[in-house]
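fyi for ur records
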Amino acid sequence: MSRLRLEPQELGLPALDALDVDALAVLVGPERPLQGLAGFADWRLCGLISRAIRDASYRPETGEALLRPSGGRIAVPRIFCFGAPEAPPDPAAWAVQVARLCQAMHKAGSASWAGALPPVPAGDVPWGRLFLEALLPVAPRRLVLLGDARVLYRELAQAREALRATDVELVAPGSRVELPRAASVPHAPRGATTA
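which gave:
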């Protein structure tokens, strides 16, 4: 039995609506309107995060954290918001930001949470390894990582192997099924009968 179940999923409203975790960790960058997971969460929460920023009760630009109940607007009961820079300047700063996020969720007593990674620094950065190194000492029982599920899975699988992290169960993302566009499906002419 694995100590940590790590589930990469596509970032979007369907994944957010299907979450079955006890907390959601949202990185709130300087962009307005909110983007990524922060934007999706704010949408589902009817602007709760945006209002807190607008009325200055939450100042993410200072690195401030905010805990809010979801009020039943999504199935996740607790929403943690963490102020984040737009793009960390280097891999070390990125690793510090990720470690801060993982440690905060651990201190909050979250056994299963969902979140998205901050933007990955440019260049050949082993970000999957940096993430697992920050996560493993404070790992929850289950983590749903939202983003490009296939890229997340590939990078985390390489990191798990490099770190020999046998206590991590990495769940492969579901396959995408592409349906043909309606215009490309042949239709029988009007009035024609089929046998």
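The domain at 4-173 is CATH 3.40.220.10 (Leucine Aminopeptidase, subunit E; domain 1). thats all i got for now
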